[in-house]
Design goal:
Blueprint (H helix, E strand, L loop, with lengths): L4 H21 L7 E5 L6 E2 L6 E4 L6 E5 L4 E3 L16 E4 L3 E6 L4 E9 L4 H5 L2 E5 L2 E7 L5 E9 L3 E8 L5 E3 L1 E6 L9 E4 L5 E4 L7 E8 L17 E2 L4 E2 L1 H4 L2 E4 L20 H4 L1 E5 L4 E7 L4 E10 L11 E5 L2 E7 L1 H5 L5 E10 L4 E8 L10 E3 L1 E7 L18 H4 L2 H35 L13 H6 L10
Parallel strand pairs: 1-3, 15-26, 17-18
Antiparallel strand pairs: 1-14, 2-3, 4-7, 5-6, 6-13, 7-12, 8-11, 8-14, 9-10, 9-12, 11-17, 15-16, 17-29, 19-22, 20-21, 21-28, 22-27, 23-26, 23-29, 24-25, 24-27
Bound molecules: 2-acetamido-2-deoxy-beta-D-glucopyranose (4 copies).
């Protein structure tokens, strides 16, 4: 049957519709999906990915408990606009406080904590953050906008996210993301590269807590949450390359289709999106490419190396070695034999201890076994996650009580401390009342809202963090 150009166009259109509808139908929809704008008075919609964050009050699945009242806070009206709408408000805690987030499906969750210290008092805040009794951030301070991402197993019906200020300080948070991680995101087994260079198998990874340190799109553009089904950000590898001059590496980008396996329980777009797999950096058979990542020393790391052969014209052309922290981890890696097809994504998880140097190195080294001199091996992406040091915390065990129930059973020392918290809070309230009164007078006098200098009393630093009233009109 002959088809007219018109009907051909219609077929193309229908195909496009089909493709786009299946693409949207398979978009990841987490069972639990808490998006919370702390201290905000209205929902915040992110312009970059359209996600809607709801205020932390008046939401049925989120409960805020605190041993002392907490205050919403917003930047000074005169301050420069915040980097993200999520940074336009915060909740500030003068004492132990906790969010209980309802969990409908137990299992691994992704937790992202957004911090932006929009006032000097917040920048001076020193505090601890725990989740489910596990210390995630110890003695934490923030000097610039930062997102802390953790992957943690949750086996209760509510996750308690606890903030504990250091004595005399405050704690704060701007936004929280907590959503169910897809099953395939973290496997249980990895390749252990020990300090003495022996390589073996390690398991039990699925019960660990991970903190994401780096997410690198090798030789590719920055991938934003818009193009990542788990709303991740991947950055270019350029500034982590060591020794680029001598390596003779080549940059590749691919316009074809990444062949994600259908219905696989191990590999999907949620592991890494197309935009990450469609770029790579290759190495010559006589060269090497090395990346170096500054990391806190004395921790164990999960190094995920992503491969997707977008550089070969045929199978079985490439053989290369992978070095992790200076140790040969894989010899003559032959990607074709594990994937059996081109443009098919694959990853290897290495587990490595970084002792004192504080730099984690990763290298791909060409091999004479390869069919071509020009291209011997390649890499598409790197993820580096720090693993928990003990069963109690990312950094180890510290005498920080994350238990909210302690207020009931507390001893005399705790009682005094909570009394102190109450006093600090009363002090803040007093400052606030004075502020409101001054503001009223000033408004009457010159009709302006700017009164920065008016709060430089002894408590000036803290008071600025609690500038509730002067900025309320921002919303
Ligand atoms: C936090 O750091 C400060 C200053 O280094 C220190 O005095 C304090 O003991 C630390 N707190 C905890 C719980 O480790
Ligand atoms: C998303 O990916 C597409 C295709 O690679 C690209 O054209 C677009 O610029 C990306 N958008 C963002 C916001 O990164
Ligand atoms: C990488 O190449 C440099 C010289 O370009 C060489 O000194 C180094 O030993 C090589 N590293 C490996 C792991 O082969
Ligand atoms: C990390 O935490 C998990 C429990 O959350 C625990 O089972 C595991 O032993 C901890 N890892 C280390 C190295 O202590």
């Amino acid at each position: 049957m002959a088809s007219s150009p018109g009907s051909a166009r219609l077929t193309v259109l229908l195909l496009c519709l089909l493709v786009s509808s299946t693409a949207s139908a398979t978009r990841f929809a987490p069972a639990d999906n808490h998006l919370i704008a702390c201290g905000a008075t209205a929902p915040v919609v992110l312009p970059e990915d359209g996600r809607r964050f709801v205020p932390d009050t008046g939401c049925a699945s989120v409960r805020l408990r605190s041993t002392a009242p907490t205050l919403p806070s917003a930047p000074d009206a005169a301050a420069p606009p915040p980097p993200s709408p999520l940074h336009a408000a915060a909740r500030v805690f003068s004492c132990h406080a906790s969010y209980d987030l309802a969990i409908t499906r137990r299992g691994r969750h992704v937790l992202r904590l957004h911090f932006y210290p929009f006032s000097p008092a917040l920048a001076a805040a020193r505090f601890h953050v725990g989740a489910a009794g596990f210390l995630l951030l110890h003695n934490f301070t923030v000097s610039s906008p930062v997102v802390k991402e953790f992957l943690l197993p949750v086996d209760t019906d509510a996750l308690a996210l606890t903030f504990v200020p250091e004595p005399g300080s405050a704690a704060f948070i701007n936004a929280i993301e907590l959503f169910s991680a897809p099953e395939e995101l973290v496997g249980d087994v990895g390749t252990l590269v020990a300090a003495d260079g022996t390589v073996g198998r390690t398991d039990g990874l699925s019960s660990q807590v991970f903190e994401t340190l780096y997410r690198i799109n090798v030789a590719g553009r920055k991938v934003t949450p818009f193009n990542d089904t788990l709303w991740r950000t991947w950055v270019n590898d350029g500034r982590f390359l060591v020794d680029t001059g001598s390596s003779g590496s080549t940059v590749w980008s691919f316009g074809g289709r990444i062949a994600y396996p259908k219905g696989s329980r191990l590999m999907s777009r949620e592991v890494a999106p197309d935009n990450v797999y469609n770029s790579a950096r290759s190495v010559r058979s006589d060269g090497n490419v090395t990346w170096g990542f500054p990391v806190p020393a004395g921790s164990r790391y999960l190094v995920r190396t992503h491969f997707c052969d977008i550089v070969s014209k045929a199978l079985y052309q490439l053989y290369f070695d992978i070095y992790v922290n200076g140790h040969l981890a894989v010899k003559y890696f032959d990607i074709s034999s594990v994937t059996g097809s081109l443009a098919y994504p694959y990853y290897i998880d290495f587990v490595v201890d970084v002792e004192d140097e504080g730099i984690l190195k990763l290298a791909i080294v060409g091999s004479k076994m390869s069919r071509s001199e020009q291209v011997s091996g390649f890499l598409n992406a790197i993820e580096i996650m720090r693993m928990n040091k003990t069963g109690g915390g990312m950094d180890g065990d510290f005498p920080v009580s994350l238990d909210m129930g302690y207020a009931i059973r507390m001893g005399i020392g705790e009682f005094v401390r909570s009394l102190l918290c109450g006093l600090i809070f009363a002090g803040l309230l007093l400052v606030l009342v004075v502020l409101v009164m001054r503001l009223r007078t000033e408004l009457r006098n010159n009709g302006t809202l700017c009164s920065r200098q008016s709060i430089d009393s002894g408590d000036g630093k803290l008071a600025r963090a609690y500038q509730l009233v002067p900025t309320k009109t921002d919303y």
